Amino acid sequence: MKKTKYLFVILFMLVAFLAIGATSVNAKTITVENEEQLINASKGIDSEINEIKLAKDITLTEYLNFYVVNDITLELNGQTLDTGSEGLSFNYGMSDHDEAISDYHYNFNSKLTIKDSSSSKTGKILTKKSINFTTYDVIHDEEIKKYGLTIDGGYYEISSSTTNLISLFTNDYYTNGRNINVDVKVKDAVFKVSDQKSLFGTSRDSVSDIKFNFKFESLKVMGLASKLGTNKLGKMKLDNVIDPNSKAYFQKLPYTTGAPILAEADRNTLVDDFYATGGSNPYIIIKKVNGFEVNNVEINETYKETPSLNSISIKNISASDLQIQNVTVDSSNFIVEGPSTQPTVCISRFAVCTMRLTTAANILILSATAYRRISAKTRMRSTSRVTDISAARFIRAAKNV
Fold first, then answer.
1. Residue 173, class by beta-carbon neighbours within 10 Å (0-12 exposed, 13-18 middle, 19+ buried)?
2. How much of the chain is in helix, strand and coil states, percent to nearest 5?
3. Tell me, what's the pLDDT at 372?
4. DSSP 70-99
C-alpha cells in the first residue's frame, strides 16, 4: 500500500513538472547577424525558438517568409531590418516544409510580437512593399484559429506611395470560412505611411468573415490623410479600437492661422474619418493620458510592531507629468523625498493637502514603514507633457519610534 502511494506521488510530481516547466526550460533565443541566419531561424520548424534577436542591421536580398507557428518574438534590438527590393511576410499557423518529416508543422493558436527593447530605441523595419501578415492553410477549416500580433516599440516606414504599410490577412481565399480570429495590439510605435494610405489594410466585410480585434495604446502615424486602417478596420469606431486610457489626436490647419494644431478626435469617429488634414509634417497620434489612478490606499501598523514594509509601486504610463491630490494622513510626520526639487506639501492632523511634482516623473514608489497607523487617500492624474521619463519621485510615510 505504501509503495503504491509513493509511486502515485512520484508520478504526480513528474506530470506537474512536465506541465509547468517544459516550455520555459526549452525556450531559447536565437541571435542573428545576417540574412541567412534570419531565414533559417524563422522557418517555424524548431518549436523551442521563442525569440529571434537582431545583432546587426540586415538588408534582404531575397523574399523573407517568417513563419509564426508558436508564440515568437522578433526583437529588433536597436537594429534595422531593411527589405531592400524584396518583401517580408509573416505566415501564421503553418511552418516551412520540414524535410526531416516531409511535412509541415501546424499550430492555430500562434502569436507574434515585434519589439525593440534596446536603450537606444533605434530599432526599425524599412520596406518598399507592404509587409504581409497572412496564412496559407486550407485543409483545417474546422479548426478555430486564434492569431495575434503585438507591436511594442520600433519605427516602421514604407517608401512606396501606392500601397499600405501592413497588409493584414487581406487574401480572401485564405481567410473566408476558415474560422480565423486575429488580435492586434500596438503598445508603442511610430509608423511612416505614404500620404492618403493606411497603416493596416484589411479585408472587406462582404468578402471575408475573418474577425479582427484591435487595441491601440500608443502610436504615431505620419502622412497626410493617412489612416489607421481600411475596410473592416475603417468601419470601426475609434472607441472600439483604442485603449480606454488613451486619446486620439489629429493634426490640422485652422482657418484663422497658418500654424498647425493638434485636435482631439471624438471617440465615436470612424477610423475611416480619422486622419491628419494639414501641416508640413502631418500625423495622427494615439497616446496614454490617464496613466494611473490609485484610490483609498490604506496601510496599517501598530506601535512597536515590526513593520511589514508594505509598498505600492506605480508606473506612470502616460505622456504627462505626475500630480497627486487629496492626501489625508493622521500623522504630522509625512516626508516627501526626491532627488532634486521637492513638491510643496502641507501636512497636519486630518488635513487634506495637495502635492504636485513639477518635473516629469515616470515612476512613483510609495513605501511605508510606519509604526503607527497611517491612512492615505490618493488620487493621481496626469497634467503636462513628459520631458524626462527617467526621473523618479519617492514618497515615504514614517513615524519615529
1. exposed
2. 10, 40, 50
3. 31
4. SSEEEE-TT-EEE-TTS-EEEEESB-S-BT
Of 106, 57, 119, 116, the C-alpha closest to 84 is 57
Mean pLDDT estimate for the chain:
78
Residue labelled with grid coordinates 505600492: 312
Q: Which residues pair with 94 in a beta bridge?
A: 106
| Cβ atoms of residues 398 and 339 within 8 Å | no
Task: Write out the three cell numbers for 257.
Answer: 492661422
> What are all long-range contacts of 254-261, with beta carbons under 8 Å and residues at least 24 apart?
none
User: How open is the CA angle 49-50-53, to the nearest 5 degrees?
Assistant: 90
Residue 362 has pLDDT above 70, yes or no: no
Over residues 50-74, the pLDDT tens digits come to 999 999 999 999 999 999 999 999 9
pLDDT tens digits for 246-295?
999 999 987 766 788 899 999 999 999 999 998 888 999 999 876 554 44
Average pLDDT over residues 18-26: 46
DSSP secondary structure string for all residues of 269-320: SBGGG-----SSS-EEEEEE--------EEE---TTPPP---EEEEE--SSE
